[in-house]
Each structure stands twice: as structure tokens, then as C-alpha cells.
Write a structure and sequence with these properties.
mainly alpha, 348 residues, 15 helices
Length: 348
């Protein structure tokens, strides 16, 4: 669904309380399934028993082993939360970029922003060392994503690529250049760490830890709240710069701030999950079909749907070649590639 068709859907109400209820139930069920399913299956009752005991409620009499408790609390629950956070973040970034660029194909992966984040993360992992502690990787990933965003905008202006399709082509070209530089960093880095970094670049959530979750969550919440607070401005931007200006919006400044927020979210998500593509492209289009084009609804629903989508993508990645974990980027790439082709055909 294009942004323009989303505009026509602005005002569609639907049964929002029912949709919210269904969405929250789907999210809780998806998290439960993500914890339960894996190389070692854990029953739902045990999953919620362990979680209630760890949180302090103790609603279920313990009848599980310490191994099951460790699998649930130490491994799969933080992994499921990271999947939900990353999925929500990438979906919100895609929705926001599609509004300020009025480009239905805008996506942090296709525009090269994810590649910039990966470049910064590789630089930190293989060359600079963790000079800022755990903050080093997300900080350099953010700077890389921000530099990539600036490069795409500069190249598109230089090449006169103002149309939606040419902006995406510009992003792909910049992404190729950045990834070539990232590969050079890997080539020049420690060969013993190269395999791990290459596997990480394919996208994965297997390194999720409790003490790491605060960073992506600490970035996601304020950025999403700020974007949601500016939802009316995003609605105006989808109509056109002249309309937005007539409503008192400083178009250039607002677009720049959205790009910075998008680079911040994308860079930090890439730092903890690797490159996961097409979530920001697919989810906003699907959400607009359900709730319309009003960004007061598109943003929270994109966050919710993105979280659910990535939870199930991770389940597929962990089970399709069990006991091996397939990189989740392969799953989202296969689904997103088909979606992208369908979207191009729909646009004619």
C-alpha cells in the first residue's frame, strides 16, 4: 500500500478497542511461543511459571528443572524481548521515513542506513576496541547510520534523484559502497573474530543478554514517543511540503530531525542484532491497510506489528534448521524480497 493510498485511508476508524485487545493478546502469545519453542521445547505452563517466579508472583508451584528455568529466564526471554524491541524500532523507522520522504519504498535497509550502522559496529568490534564500554558499539553504529543517511541525501541531491524509485536506487548504491568498506574492515581485522562478525552481519538475536537490553529500549521509547507526539506533522508531510509549511511546520528542520531519530534507532538496533532487512518496508504498509494512514495510529501499530513479526521470524530461524540457529536476516530477506516485488508490481 502506498503512502498516497494511506492518505486516502486517513480517518478510517475501525473497532480500535477490539484491535488493541487482539494485538496485545497476539504479542503476549508470540513472546510465550518464542520462549517455548526451540531445540529444547518448554511447555507454556512452565514458561509462565518460571516468569512469575522470577518476577516475584510465584503463581505456579515449581515443578521444573533448573535447566528449564535457565533456558527460559537467562536465554529465551531476553532474546524474545530483544526481537520485539528491534522489530518495533525498525518498523517505526520505516513508517517515519516513508512519511517525510513521501516514498512508499523507504526503509532503513534499502536506504543504506543499516549498512552505515553495521560499518560503525564493525569498526568498534574489530578496530577501536570498547573505549566507551558497552556504549562503544551502539554509539559508533549510530554515527555510522547517521553518516550513511547524510550520504544518501547528498548523493540523491547531487544525482538529481528526486523520485521514489531513484532515491531507493541511490540508497542501494550507497549501501554497496559502505558494505565494501565494511568488508575491508573485516579483511584488515583479526581473522579469529572475522567469522563471528560476518555471522553477526547476517542478523541474529542469539547474543541477547539482560544487561544489554537497556540500550535499545532506552533509545526506542523516547524516540517513538517523540515521533508519536509529532504524528500530526508526519500526516502533513505525507501530503506535501507546501501543505506542511502552510501549517507552520519547519519542513527542512523536521525532516532532518526525523532522519536523526531514524539513524539513532537503526544504528542501536543494528549494534545488538546485526542487519535485519525489510521490516521497516513491509510492516507500515500492512498496518495502513488495517488502521488507515493517520500516524497517531500507524506508529504504535507499526511498533506492535513489527515486534510480533520479528518474534515469529526468529522462531522460524531457530526451528527450520534446528538445532542450528539460522541468521534471522535470511528469513526477513526472503519474505521482504517477495513483498518488495509485489509492491513494485502494485505500483505498476
Amino acid at each position: 500500500m502506498s503512502v498516497s493510498s494511506g492518505d486516502r485511508a486517513i480517518g478510517r476508524r475501525g473497532n480500535l478497542p477490539l484491535l488493541i485487545g487482539i494485538g496485545m493478546v497476539a504479542l503476549v502469545f508470540s513472546i510465550s511461543a518464542a520462549i517455548s519453542v526451540g531445540a529444547v521445547s518448554v511447555p507454556f505452563r512452565t514458561v509462565w511459571g518460571v516468569l512469575s517466579e522470577q518476577i516475584g508472583f510465584g503463581l505456579v508451584t515449581p515443578d521444573w528443572s533448573q535447566g528449564q528455568a535457565a533456558v527460559v529466564w537467562e536465554i529465551r526471554f531476553p532474546r524474545a524481548l530483544l526481537a520485539a524491541i528491534v522489530g518495533a524500532g525498525l518498523a517505526v523507522v520505516g513508517a517515519s521515513l516513508q512519511a517525510v520522504t513521501r516514498n512508499p519504498l523507504a526503509d532503513p535497509h534499502l536506504l543504506g542506513i543499516s549498512s552505515g550502522g553495521a560499518f560503525g559496529a564493525i569498526l568498534a568490534l574489530l578496530h577501536t576496541g570498547l573505549f566507551l564500554g558497552l556504549l562503544t558499539v551502539p554509539v559508533l553504529a549510530f554515527l555510522g547510520a547517521l553518516a550513511a543517511t547524510g550520504a544518501v541525501l547528498a548523493v540523491s541531491r547531487f544525482a538529481g534523484a528526486s523520485s521514489a524509485d531513484r532515491l531507493v536506487l541511490t540508497g542501494v548504491a550507497v549501501s554497496f559502497v559502505i558494505m565494501a568498506l565494511a568488508n575491508l574492515l573485516i579483511f584488515l581485522g583479526d581473522p579469529r573474530a572475522a567469522h563471528t562478525v560476518v555471522f553477526w552481519m547476517l542478523g541474529g538475536l542469539g547474543l541477547a543478554q539482560w544487561n544489554h537490553l537497556i540500550y535499545p529500549l532506552g533509545v526506542l521509547i523516547p524516540c517513538v514517543l517523540w515521533l508519536w507526539r509529532r504524528a500530526a506533522d508526519l500526516n502533513a508531510m505525507t501530503i506535501g511540503d507546501e501543505t506542511a509549511t502552510s501549517l507552520g511546520i519547519s519542513v527542512v528542520r523536521f525532516r532532518r530531525m526525523v532522519f536523526i531519530a531514524g539513524a539513532l534507532i537503526t544504528g542501536v538496533m543494528v549494534a545488538f542484532s546485526g542487519m535485519i532487512g525489510f521490516v521497516g518496508l513491509m510492516i507500515p504498509h500492512i498496518v495502513r491497510v488495517v488502521v488507515g494512514g493517520d500516524y497517531t495510529r500507524v506508529l504504535p501499530w507499526s511498533a506492535l506489528a513489527g515486534a510480533i513479526f520479528l518474534l515469529w521470524a526468529d522462531i522460524v530461524a531457530r526451528t527450520i534448521m534446528a538445532p542450528e540457529d539460522m541468521p534471522i536476516g535470511i528469513v526477513t530477506g526472503l519474505i521482504g524480497g517477495v513483498f518488495f516485488v509485489a509492491l513494485l508490481r502494485r505500483r505498476g
